[in-house]
Amino acid sequence: MLGWPLERVHIIDCDLGKSGSQSAGRDGSQKLVSEVALGKAGLVMGLEVSRLARNSADWHRLIELCSLAGALILDEDGIYDPANFNDRLLLGLKGTMSEAELHFLKARMRGGVINKARRGELEMRPPIGLVYRDDGVLILDPDTEVQAALRLVFDTFEKTGSAMQTTKIFREQGLRFPRRIRAGLSNGELHWAQASHSRIIQVLHNPRYAGAFVYGRVRTRLLPDGKHSTIRVPQSDWQFVIPGINAECIRASYQRYLESNAG
Questions:
Q1: Which stretches of 26-173 are DSSP H helices?
Q2: I want to staple 215 with a disulfide (CB 3.0 to 4.6 A). Which of 19, 75, 79, 117 is the partner?
Q3: 155 with 49, same domain?
Q4: How far does CA 144 lie from the centroid of its chain?
Q5: Domain span at 94
Q6: Per residue in 54-64, pLDDT tens?
Q7: Domain end marker among 108, 143, 163
Q8: What is the mean pLDDT of residues 132-158?
């Protein structure tokens, strides 16, 4: 292959299905950069620039390392020498276009999400005690123990008028409150734990229990390490608030719950 024996050709495909928008979490990309930096690569091949990086910082870093190590870059259009100014300029333009393409893809997806949220049709992870039916309607969780725990929170708060007193009563009576595990091997499983004050506040402040659809309660920001930081937004700045969109279904589900317990 272009003068290299097959035993010296290494295929890196462990990043398949992962976005090239950042190097964090892309072991293949990091291995490629390491091999180039150590002078172990003579030619870096890819179908297109976006397969190597969709982030200008990562892409220009790779170009710089290839230039210093004397490695060439090949894509479906030809072979480039990063040490050559014209080739380096063209590679930079390819990287910029690839990053812009990712931006447009995200913008279209974001537009679809916003349009659904504007109509109140966007399915977001519901709080504990609420689940989506197959037709997308939000109803009470069929688990009667979860329903009872949730109802007890609202009934106790209605009597005491205090989230702190509600938490205290739960603890004094040894009552536990459920939560759904959202990650890992136990994803989706129900876990019962001692009710904390912050958890009770979270339930009481969630407008979904009142049948309102809300979008834009939090904003996320990407951190340098690839993780996301979440910031709560003041109620006046929530993007969409549609009251009563699921209220009837929730009330109907609660009425059936009362009737079943009365029987």
A1: 27-37, 56-69, 85-119, 144-160, 163-172
A2: 117
A3: no
A4: 30
A5: 6-108
A6: 777 888 888 89
A7: 108
A8: 86
